[in-house]
Amino acid sequence: MFDSLDALLLARIQFAFTVSFHFIFPAFSIGLASYLAVLEGLWLKTGKQLYLDLFKYWLKIFAIAFAMGVVSGIVMSYQFGTNWSVFSDITGPILGPLMAYEVLTAFFLEAGFLGVMLFGMNRVGKKLHFTATLMVAVGTFISAFWILSVNSWMHTPVGFTTGANGQLLPEASWFEIVFNPSFPYRLVHTVIAAYLTTAFVVGGVAAWHLLKDKTNGHARKMFSMAMWMAALVAPIQIFAGDMHGLNTMEHQPQKVMAMEGHYESHPEGAPLYLFGIPNDEEQRLDYAIGIPKLSSLILKHELDAPLAGLDTIPDEDQPPVLPVFFAFRVMVGIGFAMLGIGVWSMFARYRKKLYDWPWLHRAAVLMGPSGFVAVIAGWITTEVGRQPFTVYGVLRTAQSASPLDAPAVAASLIAFVVIYFAVFGAGTWYILRLMSHPPHLGEKGVKRTEKGPVRTAGITPGPTQNPGRGNEPLPDHEVAPAE
User: Which spans are transmembrane here (predicted)?
Assistant: First the structure.
């Protein structure tokens, strides 16, 4: 039944599906790890129980999100060898070491300290536990560093040569490869997006509980911290996004043309299209609504600056405009909505009504998942805008896929869809269930059973033994308490 389908298209759909699921978890865990470090640091500095309660409240949510991010990321790695083996073979000498560095630095750092962070609050000193929390936060950032370096090199490939067997080989300095032209902009834009995603989740949860009880001190503190983040960081993100766009125009001009909907060149200033329906077949933007010359002002800082259009790009090198055009507007629209919430919260704070305006709280609840939508829209803009290349200007997507038949790819795609919605749907439901309960005084952290961690290899021990009593279990009062 799948013989009539295109194996390449199915492989692209499968990777898009799995990476979309995966991306939302690191986008949350990167920001949440830093938020946990801030909360624990404030607890150590002030001694206030409230910060410890919030730390334990979000620690449980972080543990689940982190686990789902790791699992979904492993699946993506396997796809490089199954559906994209040619891509892996050609780019392996460059991308392989970079991804290995991510494992050897970030993943090992996170794995080494995560257990202490989750279960060590009552087993190690406060400073050592805070150090573990910091190391996990640093590990999430280092992971983003290496993965974004890999992704950025695929967009702006430099420092390589083509070997006799067709492989792309490092030519001079690894520094040039790692810090490729688009990497600094992409790193800043993506990490800030992760922080804003977390801030609006925290703000949405806090607003939900404030609508039920505006005297809840824990919810008030969460909401205040989240709104400070929105007010101060959203403007920085808009500026960073603008700088990233200018960098993209320099190195990937046809992506910006697709983002702007510029099928035609504009020698005397290009309009900023607010809406339209891209028509790739006719090479025009139907039902276009725009502001004259504003695109030239934004991109080149001159009203009459000329801007080239897709009519200067060969048809076979043009990205699909429709998904890029609309995804870009979703991302930018959410960014300005975040800025609006931040400004609104500052006005409420000035009026001393931050916890008393229910419409602000309703808006914050509505904006709670907005960060996830924005990062997915940004990913679509970036990755679909790179098409028809996997390595921009060097390796085409059609040349990167494994020689598989459509039924084989379709079968794995169906399996992924079923398993992902079941497993990650259940995990997401449990996270939402945890969020539905308000944080309170004496919040419990991640629980550890009396039997200790589950062992998956080696000899499984029997019941906890008490030296000098034979096989008699320890009395309840001698068992280490759960945290």
Answer: 15-36, 57-78, 98-121, 128-148, 187-211, 223-240, 324-347, 359-380, 409-432
Are the CB atoms for 145 and 187 separated by under 8 Å? yes
- Residue 321 — φ and ψ, nearest 5°? -80, -40
CA dist., res. 367 & res. 234, Å (int): 13
State how far the Cα of 55 lies from the Cα of 221, in Å rounded to an integer: 12
Looking at the whole model, is its pTM more than 0.90? no
Distance CA 286, CA 282 (A): 9
Residues 15/371, Cβ–Cβ less than 8 Å: no
Which amino acid belongs to residue 454?
Answer: V
Q: What is the pLDDT of residue 298?
A: 87
CB atoms within 10 A of CB 105: 16
One-letter-per-residue 3-state SS of the chain: CCCCCCHHHHHHHHHHHHHHHHHHHHHHHHHHHHHHHHHHHHHHHHCCHHHHHHHHHHHHHHHHHHHHHHHHHHHHHHHHHHCCHHHHHHHHHHHHHHHHHHHHHHHHHHHHHHHHHHHCCCCCCHHHHHHHHHHHHHHHHHHHHHHHHHHHHHHCCCCEEECCCCCEEECCCHHHHHCCCCHHHHHHHHHHHHHHHHHHHHHHHHHHHHHHCCCCHHHHHHHHHHHHHHHHHHHHHHHHHHHHHHHHHHHCHHHHHHHHCCCCCECCCCCEEEEEEEECCCCEEEEEEEECCHHHHHHHCCCCCCECCHHHCCHHHCCCHHHHHHHHHHHHHHHHHHHHHHHHHHHHHHCCCCCCCHHHHHHHHHCCCHHHHHHHHHHHHHHHCCCCEEECCCEEHHHCCCCCCHHHHHHHHHHHHHHHHHHHHHHHHHHHHHHHCCCCCCCCCCCCCCCCCCCCCCCCCCCCECCCCCCCECCHHHCCCCC
AA identity, residue 124: V
Question: Which position has the higher pLDDT, 462 or 90?
Answer: 90
Q: Is the four-CA dihedral 330, 331, 334, 339 of positive or negative sign?
A: negative
Dump pLDDT digits (tens) for 244-273.
Answer: 999 999 899 999 999 998 999 888 888 888
4: burial class by Cβ within 10 Å (0-12, 13-18, 19+)? Answer: exposed
Of 367, 346, 336, 334, the closest CA to residue 227 belongs to 346
